[in-house]
Amino acid sequence: KYTLKTLSMEPIGIPPNNSQQHLMRDCDTMDVVPNLNPIKDRSSENQGVTPRQWLTVAILCFVNLINYMDRYTIAGILKEISDYYRIGDDKAGLLQTAFVLSYMLFAPVFGYLGDRYSRRYIMAFGVFLWSLTTLLGSFMTEYHWFLAFRTLVGIGEASYSTIAPTIISDLFADDTRSKMLSLFYFAIPVGSGLGYIVGSETSRMANAWQWGLRVTPVLGAVAVLLIFFLLVDPPRGESDGNTAMESTTWKEDIKALLKNKSFMLSTGGFTCVAFVTGALAWWGPRFIDYGQQIQAGTSNKDVNSSVSFKFGVIAMISGLIGVPLGSYLATRLRARNPKIDPLLCAIGLFLSTPFIFMALIFARTNTIAVYILIFIGEIALNLNWAIVADMLLYVVTPNRRSTAEAFQILVSHALGDAGSPYLVGVISEALKHKYAPGSPDVAVPIEVEYKSLQDGLFSTCFVEVLGGVFFLLTSFYIVKDRAAADTEISGSEITVAPTHMFADDPQLNCSEANLTTA
Fold first, then answer.
1. Based on the structure, what is the number of domains in the chain?
2. Which backbone phi and psi does 32 adopt, to 5 degrees?
3. Counting runs of H as helices and runs of E as strands, what totals does the chain give?
4. Is residue 370 part of a domain?
5. In this predicted model, what pLDDT tens digit does every residue of 11-47 receive, in sequence order?
6. Residue 162 domain flag
7. How far is residue 485 CA from its own chain's centroid?
8. Where does residue 33 rank: exposed (0-12), middle (13-18), buried (19+ CB within 10 A)?
């Protein structure tokens, strides 16, 4: 499109035109100064939320809820699964690692597709796949087949997680987007908590752990129908006022993301969050169970069921508080400090560290104190979810957002919760042999089980501090990178060349096309 400098003929060696004549379209009857910032004007118009938009957000939140329910149902019945397949901590941790590995490897594929094809159909396919494979996996009697189906579940969930946040981004802008993202992401801790509860309680009532895995497939079938018939899939970039941005090649997308310092550093911080949440979610109930057994001097299956239930309740409530609190604080403080988003993420991780550390110390002496400490630590940790998602969406242009989501999923899971359950399990299993050398057929004392798992979980405290450092570094670049993304979005709209100098631009209305010289 045109610029004022080009029309005034000043920078290209042509003498200035001092005439007061105007370039006008036939439909114009009066002079109007052109709007040189259409992006902001259009996004600011997105004040009210329509019922159809609310319905779309509700569907996405529901699917995200059952997504994480399914993911952590196994954590609530991990002891029963370990006993059934006769596996140690390393193979028990591998169940989650295999799931996350497939999840992260296929995330870039679905990210690429999500930037170019129907997001509604891709998500419906993913939900159907994960529901079907979860159901089939519950009938497997051998460990390797059960592991294989958990791997397939990861493929299905990757299709949903990479795409859903970009739909919210295209429906809403600015503070409304932040609020809707907080609704979407509080489903993560709440869904995780429900996974513990549904898994442990259904298993207990049915007297078979397999039934714990047969609840989410039913809900998944409902979700597929909702996505197909009721979900709104808006044009990409609609909330930013520009639906005309062209897709670039995957190589160009990755190159642009690698150069985006805020995106890369916040991804590093989020990777640390994923590492900690993955390890604690997977091993937390079992570790607390070991501590209770030491206190009571007994091993009781009902104790384990109770721990999973309470741990799930704590995860839900801490998520209900932490995720909206993080979004609220960011929204309120952004006007005063444009760097507040990464700073809040760093503060959350730094605050969480001592509480998680003390919870690991007190597990064998005071269970109530452990629950309180974990509750406070998880509130601080949950401040991150919606804020990190919001940062990604405003430092990345609309035509690359699904790819950016996929890239962040790939990195955060590859170095985060894909490896942390397995890593903690490997450390625990190795330390068992050090603390209690002897025949592998001899039962390991509960004190050794507790101590070895405790040492493995101490790694999460170090990783939390590292994540805080990543977010602090992000704060140095966030303002510049956000401005660069806004400029690129605006630039894509003003670089569409007309066929000749005075050609009408079909994307401008009459008032916008009324270009005047000074």
1. 1
2. -130, 130
3. 22, 0
4. yes
5. 444 445 444 444 444 444 444 444 434 444 444 444 5
6. yes
7. 20
8. exposed
